[in-house]
Design goal:
499 residues; mainly beta; Porin; 18-stranded antiparallel barrel; two-stranded antiparallel sheet
């Protein structure tokens, strides 16, 4: 039968500064208030019934936060009067799913599945900075749409050792963004390869494209022709903008993920390299060594003080180089069409990928003010203190960084789940707008000593179950110290009812 679940959460949120500390709001699906206040969340639904040939499930999650916003509105065309504190209701999830054998369809708003949960529970959130997915980390709210999915299916002649899986999905943005009403397409393909009885490989190509939408100066028609150009990553027709005719239609990006898993006796080791890309040079690995490198050790026994240990190193400084193009040589011009003025006078080398930003879709890879992917790529206005999710956010301000992230999880006294996270980052801004000093842009790699803003952010979160039947006490302590964010300390305390 379809097992029903119900979760109710009431949480108080407090910080010593204005905005909440980094890990208090990051990877929280965009649900937390921006300053001290409260959060209420109700989740309910059913799971698939494996005993049935045709399975179905549904889910709904409604939330409301109460709190202030962290800056005076700067670009806000719709709302005219915001009180210092207000109640903000949200639809977090609302979906129905149907499954037959290895095929399934999700319709509505549903959270993406994440990886690297610790202590045998997902209620504490992922131990990873990105949830194991640099392009979609659970940092922003869910989008409405559909997703057609294929579970891992064995490839013929491989004796079940090689399996293929994937997804094909379309969504619609509903926030107040630069290109209002923009659509989002996703194509995901992956392989699971069993190398030995203990070692397996997991590889994923995950591609996204923002397209459609309009503003006062620009409009992209939602047509069948444009849709086929989006899903095939082709250039725009002559009716498109010059940028889309030169590059590809819309704002396209994604990630390439490579993971090895080793299963020991009572433990499991995971090694992963997650590579972002924003153009063809990134897809061709010209941006190496950029990416998120994860190593995670987990023990099968989850009722012990330490059950999982994770370390991540993020490096996104190179971005395919310090030049997007260079002048063409006379020899190159001899093979080019002089009427194509763009390519006749410049040779594209593909540098300056500028992750999560776009010249025409200026809100970039953000949704309701939060970065959709890697939360360390903070939205514009974060360092200056002018950011608020109630404004139209115009992309990210920090996509060149080096970061060390350490996390452990387990159960205090072998009963109470906890997670500890500590992140130390060097933040450089972007090639075009560095936080401090000189940028390497248009200079040979390594000839400039760049100056970062250093930042430390930490979190300790946990649960105390069994105080009353079906009730769990939740708590969290958070702190920021450094040059990127204001020094801050925060705490949460909540009660969760689960049925």
């Amino acid at each position: 039968m379809n097992e029903f679940f119900l979760t109710l959460l009431l949480m108080g949120v407090l910080s010593t500064g204005g905005p909440l500390p980094f890990w208090m709001t990051s990877n929280q699906f965009g649900l937390m208030p921006e300053t001290s206040g409260a959060l209420a969340l109700a989740r309910m639904g059913t799971e698939y019934d494996p005993s049935k040939t045709v399975q179905w499930r549904w889910g709904a999650s409604l939330a409301a936060n109460y709190g202030g916003f962290s800056a005076t509105p700067v670009i806000l065309s719709e709302a005219k009067d915001l009180s210092a504190k207000d109640l903000r209701p949200m639809v977090d999830e609302l979906y129905a799913s149907l499954k037959w054998k290895v095929f399934s369809v999700d319709l509505g708003m549903r959270r993406f599945d994440l990886d690297y949960y610790g202590a045998g529970t997902n209620t504490l959130g992922s131990m990873s900075t990105t949830g194991g997915h640099i392009i979609w980390s659970g940092n922003a709210r869910s989008l409405p749409g559909y997703s057609a999915n294929l579970d891992p299916v064995s490839i013929p002649l491989t004796k079940g050792r090689v399996k293929f899986f994937g997804s094909f999905a379309d969504y619609r943005t509903t926030d107040n963004r630069y290109m209002k009403g923009a659509l989002l397409h996703r194509t995901k393909m992956g392989l699971d390869i069993q190398i030995t009885e203990r070692l397996d490989f997991h590889g994923v190509f995950d591609h996204f494209a923002l397209w459609g939408g309009k503003n006062d100066a620009l409009s992209m028609p939602v047509t069948l022709g444009n849709y086929f150009r989006v899903i095939t990553s082709r250039k725009a027709s002559t009716a498109g903008t010059q940028s889309d005719q030169i590059n590809v239609i819309g704002d396209q990006r994604g990630a390439e993920t490579f993971r090895f898993n080793w299963r020991g006796n009572g433990w499991r080791l995971s090694l992963q390299h997650d590579i972002p890309y924003d153009d063809g040079s990134g897809m061709g690995f010209q941006n190496f060594p950029d990416g998120v490198n994860t190593i995670c050790l987990g023990f099968e026994e989850k009722d012990q003080w330490v059950t999982d240990i994770l370390y991540e190193y993020q490096y996104t400084m190179f971005q395919s180089g310090t030049r997007h193009d260079r002048p063409t040589t006379d020899e190159e011009k001899a093979h080019l069409d002089p009427s194509d003025e763009f390519h006749y006078y410049r040779h594209i080398v593909g540098g300056g990928d500028n992750y999560f930003n776009n010249g025409e879709y200026k809100s970039g890879w953000t949704y309701y003010g939060h970065t959709i992917g890697n939360p360390l790529f903070v939205p514009k206005g974060t360092h200056a203190g002018t950011w608020t999710g109630r404004n139209t956010v115009l992309g990210v301000e920090n996509n060149r960084l080096k970061a060390h992230h350490f996390s452990i999880a387990g159960k205090l006294f072998r009963k109470a789940p906890y997670k500890l996270m500590l992140t130390y980052s060097h933040n450089y801004g972007t090639y075009g707008i560095p936080y401090k000093g000189e940028s390497q842009w248009l200079k040979d790699w390594g000839t400039v000593k760049e100056t970062p803003l250093n930042q430390v952010s930490g979190a300790f979160v946990g649960e105390i179950p069994g105080l009353l039947e079906h009730f769990t006490l939740t708590y969290g302590l958070y702190a920021d110290r450094g040059e990127l964010l204001p020094d801050n300390f925060g705490a949460t305390l909540g009660i969760r009812y689960s049925l």
